[in-house]
Amino acid sequence: MRTEAAWAALEGALARRVVAARAVAAAGGLDQPHADELRALVTVADTATRAHRADAENDLSRALVALPPVHEPELALQLADAGERVTLARRFYNDAVRDTRALRGDRFTRVFGLAGRAALPDYFEIAEHRRPEPVRRTAARVLLLDDADRVLLLSGTDPRAGASWWFTPGGGVESGEDLAQAAVREVAEETGLQLAPGDLVGPIWRRTARFAFVGVDYEQTEFYFAARSGAHPGRDELDTSGRTELEHQTLTGHRWWEHDDLAEIREQVFPVELADRLTEARLALDRGEPAEVVEVR
């Protein structure tokens, strides 16, 4: 019977999601309350009878949407794939239920007793919960070069994910700011180095990034300027007193990088092409203006 075959497929998709959610709860990337709640809801969904399965699966769906982003790429992919399979299987099952109920209601079927005595199948109604759209914002960043052509990078971490990386000073553009104003404000906050908008050359690069940071999904368009820092070899310290509380928690260090050392680094660096394109920043500074805005990764 088509309806029972569709139900079997839906059960398989729900079971796959239970396995993926249980793996996320066990991976160690969630805080204890979230992990405990997810384990409990997974158990309820996995053991629920058919009559109570929809309620249990709805509770699990809501919990999955409310979770912090899953930073383990393989687990995130498995969970997303399982969710899509549940959505498709539920639609297929409900289509089968609709057709079965319509056939049972047909006058010809009723008159000649072709429907048999089986109970009418019920729809499986669970909401298609999806994660909210990412926060979209524009950011301004600065390639700061000192008198020895070293470039300043900050090291950062996401406390929720345990990941770390190197990146250029900069951040989101606030209301009423243009790109240059945001760039010099962010540099002052993060490094203590004072620049004026007129010290910037660019933007020379543009980069679009999709990422999760401290539990928030972002889609960010970044514009990169180049500037001379006024710092010189032997004067590597920064003034970090202007950093926000979040920056104090997530910025873990800094370094003025020689090009050759930067080319050999094994840690994550953003933009990814920085070592290969650093000469472009130097040439833009020599010219005093960018040739064009280049897309980078």
Automatic annotation (TrEMBL):
CDD domains: NUDIX_Hydrolase (cd04685). Gene3D superfamilies: Nucleoside Triphosphate Pyrophosphohydrolase (3.90.79.10). Residues 135-280 form the Nudix hydrolase domain. Pfam families: NUDIX. Keywords: Hydrolase, Magnesium. Its cofactor is Mg(2+). PANTHER family: GDP-MANNOSE MANNOSYL HYDROLASE (PTHR43046:SF12). Belongs to the Nudix hydrolase family. This is NUDIX domain-containing protein. The lineage of its organism: Bacteria, Bacillati, Actinomycetota, Actinomycetes, Nakamurellales.
